[in-house]
From TrEMBL:
It is a single-pass type I membrane protein. Cadherins are calcium-dependent cell adhesion proteins. They preferentially interact with themselves in a homophilic manner in connecting cells; cadherins may thus contribute to the sorting of heterogeneous cell types. M-cadherin is part of the myogenic program and may provide a trigger for terminal muscle differentiation. This is Cadherin-15. Residues 643-671 are annotated as: Disordered. Keywords: Calcium, Cell adhesion, Cell membrane, Cleavage on pair of basic residues, Glycoprotein, Membrane, Metal-binding, Repeat, Signal, Transmembrane, Transmembrane helix. The lineage of its organism: Eukaryota, Metazoa, Chordata, Craniata, Vertebrata. The keyword Repressor does not apply. Its main location: membrane.
Length: 745
């Protein structure tokens, strides 16, 4: 196979790169002439294209189309464009290409037309004081826009100015600044300002400058020192928690740094720890204060030895030096002090019932001002019950009235009073003392039987027991345990009764032999456990009831027995008899009045027998009022057999349960035919019975007034039939009889 040989390019049409210096001022300037070997009759037309010709930036280059000369038409700047690549063309007159396009490269040659520039105007660095030589602090750097491959951009650094010491040096190539010699001392010079320079052409060309600021960092190379060897201060006595004054120090290290902060210590002169010293964080001075009250009379001056050192220890490189010491003299000023009760509170004991004027105690205070002549006076500041009186000069406390239990002013048996002591200084000062008086209990009350009455079954061993209790107004140990016993003056009681202890406050009364039903009065002897013991004989009213099979009282018997313990039988008979007599008289009067009215209005009644049961009764005065209308059962008059020796009167609602039962109950006659004799006998018994309350006397009934809310009172003959009565006339009697008309009309 035949290979085609490479096509030979003519040397005249190959254009080597063309160099031209930037900032060339001779314009236009011939750069090169291109020429084609293919000459045509009539000539060749040349042209160029590319940046600087028909592309931005326009108009920099041009060509003579007939001669092929290429011209520079403007100044070039290498920093903007360091080379241009153009294309050259050769055409005949008809526009036909004679040669293939060829490259035309124009290289812009650099000139040193740019100064170096530092990256910042001020460079900042830090180094500790006392740093060794060669310790690098910082690096400064600059740039140059010229060709870095030429000396136009070859930079060199130098320090133009740093003061007379010459403590720093700079690497000319890298711009690194380091310490040059020892002796950096922040306390001498804390900041160094260096003027650094950068120059191109390896230091011989264009230059620029900047500032390098170097700060020295503090180390603890200076101990604190007192500004004086002695300090004098003054403080009032009895002052605690107050500042006495300051001791001043000086430290050359940086204020506010850990190397500057001072720490103070009291070495001597304060064995009791009355003083304390702290550091003022703002001034670094020592502040002396009192933590315990000082007493001028005990000690009037102190001499303290105080030392100072830094919170942070000194650097090892610093020569050792002793701690700074100073003497602080403190004088204690005398002031008026308040009196003092050495015993506060004062506790004393007094027997209750102590007569007025009895001296209890002498409660005085002392004046700490021994070097001043002063007089103390006393007064009662708090005496809520006004039980006490106080001598204003001697402080002797006496009773003003009897101190008795119980009292609302006692707290757990203690009476609290406040005593005021005052001096006569200007201004006067006072103190308050607490006087606690224990009122000792005296056994002045005997125990009381509670309750004084009871009901029990009369059969031994089957409900024949009664629980007894007692109370005592005295406080322990003069109260319980209580001792119960049958009265020694009545030894016969022991045949039928016994008392056994139940607990410290109760005992059990038991029946020893079967007893008949009825009231019994047992004298008991009660004794407390006080010193000396108090005893008292009291009566126990016992009602023996009718026993059931299980040993309990039957209901009727229990009710009767209970009532018997609250009201005497004689008083009950008197009240019942009086009530019956009044009802009978009222019923007879009403029946006669009704008969006359009916004879006038409707003629004779259909039946000759008058019915007095539902007549209207007017009473002038009722005495007890509605409270007594249900007090007694009138059936007791119709059934006198209920008033047997074994039966007990019913319980009155208005009679207290604590009412005693008479020793010998009055028996009713078996057939009370004569009501007048019965009532007179009851009145005589009631008048001679001291246990009857005043409301158990016979009541006088009279006019009750209009509009009474009481229920209508039936007549004594309400048991008669009324089926043949006509009561229609009641509706004609007016509004007062409207209710009766509704019921019977």
């Amino acid at each position: 196979r035949q290979h085609e040989a490479p096509r030979r390019v003519k040397r005249a049409w190959v254009i080597p790169p063309i160099s031209v210096s930037e900032n060339h001022k001779r314009i236009p300037h011939l750069l090169v002439q291109i020429k084609s070997d293919k000459q045509q009759p009539g000539g060749v037309i040349y042209s160029i294209k590319g940046p600087g010709v028909d592309e931005e930036p326009l108009g920099i280059f041009s060509i003579d189309k007939f001669s092929g000369k290429v011209f520079l038409n403007a100044m070039l700047d290498r920093e903007e464009n360091d080379r241009y690549r153009l294309r050259a063309f050769a055409l005949d007159l008809g526009g036909v290409t004679l040669e293939d396009p060829t490259d035309l490269e124009i290289i812009v040659v650099d000139q040193n037309d740019n100064r170096p520039l530092f990256r910042q105007d001020v460079f900042t660095g830090r180094v500790v004081e006392g740093a060794e030589p060669g310790t690098c602090v910082m690096t400064v750097d600059a740039t140059d826009a010229d060709d870095p491959d030429t000396d136009n951009a070859a930079l060199r650094y130098s320090i133009l100015e740093q003061g007379a010491a010459g403590m720093f040096s700079i690497n000319a190539t890298t711009g690194e600044i380091c310490t040059a010699r020892p002796g950096l001392d922040r306390e001498t010079m804390g900041v160094y300002n260096l003027t650094v320079q950068a120059a191109d052409m390896s230091g011989d060309g264009l230059t620029t400058t900047a500032m390098a600021v170097i700060y020295l960092e503090d180390i603890n190379d200076n101990p604190p020192e007192f500004t004086a060897e002695e300090f004098s201060l003054e403080v009032e006595e009895q002052a605690a928690g107050v500042d006495v004054g300051k001791v001043f120090v000086h430290d050359k290290d940086l204020a506010g740094s850990p190397s500057w902060l001072a720490k103070f210590t009291i070495l001597e002169g304060d064995p009791e720890g009355a003083f304390a010293i702290r550091t003022d964080p703002h001034t670094n001075d020592g502040v002396l204060s009192v933590v315990k009250p000082l007493d001028h009379e005990v000690r009037d001056r102190f001499e303290l030895t105080v030392s100072v050192q830094n919170e942070r220890p000194l650097e090892p490189s610093v020569p050792a030096s002793p701690r700074a010491l100073a003497t602080v003299r403190v004088r204690v000023r005398d002031v008026n002090e308040a009196p003092v009760f050495r015993e506060n509170p004062r506790r004393v004991s007094v027997l209750e019932g102590t007569p007025p004027g009895t001296a209890i105690t002498t409660y005085t205070a002392s004046d700490p001002d021994t070097q001043q002549i002063q007089t103390l006076s006393y007064a009662l500041l708090y005496d809520p019950a006004e039980w006490l009186q106080l001598d204003p000069h001697s402080g002797t406390v006496r009773t003003k009235r009897e101190l008795l239990h119980p009292s609302a002013f006692l707290q757990g048996g203690w009476y609290i009073a406040l005593v005021l002591a005052r001096d006569d200084a200007e201004p006067p000062l006072s103190a308050t003392g607490t006087l606690s008086i224990e009122i000792l209990e005296v056994n002045d009350h005997a125990p009381q039987l509670q309750p004084p009455a009871g009901v029990l079954c009369g059969r031994p061993g089957r409900g024949g027991t009664l629980l007894l209790g007692a109370t005592d107004d005295d406080r322990p140990p003069h109260g319980a345990p209580f001792h119960f016993q049958l009265s020694p003056q009545h030894p016969q009681l022991a045949r039928n009764w016994s008392i056994a202890r139940f607990n410290v406050t109760h005992a059990v009364l038991a029946v020893l032999a079967e007893l008949p039903e009825g009231p019994y009065s047992l004298p008991l002897l009660l004794r407390d456990s006080g010193t000396p013991p108090r005893e008292q004989q009291q009566l126990l009213n016992v009602s023996v009831c009718h026993c059931g099979r299980d040993g309990t009282c039957l209901d009727g018997a229990l009710a009767a027995a209970t009532a018997g313990t609250g009201i005497t039988l004689g008083a009950l008979m008197i009240i019942l008899g009086s009530t019956i007599l009044l009802l009978v008289l009222a019923a007879l009067g009403a029946a006669r009045a009704r008969g006359r009215r009916r004879a006038l209005r409707k003629g004779l009644l259909q039946r000759s027998r008058d019915d007095m049961r539902d007549n209207i009764l007017n009473y002038d005065e009722q005495g007890g009022g509605e409270e007594d209308q249900d007090a007694y059962d009138i059936n007791q008059l119709r059934h006198p057999e209920l008033f047997s020796p074994r039966a007990k009167p019913s319980l009155r609602r208005d009679a207290p349960l604590s009412s005693g039962t008479p020793l010998v109950p009055r028996k009713l006659p078996s057939s009370p035919s004569d009501i007048e004799d019965f009532i007179n006998e009851g009145l005589e018994a009631a008048d001679s019975d001291p246990s009857v309350p005043p409301y158990d006397t016979a009541l006088i009934y009279d006019y009750e007034g209009s509009g009474s809310v009481a229920s209508p009172l039936s007549s004594i003959v309400s048991s008669l039939t009324d089926e043949d009565q006509d009561y229609d006339y009641l509706s004609e009697w007016g509004p007062r009889f409207r209710r009766l008309a509704d019921l019977y009309g």
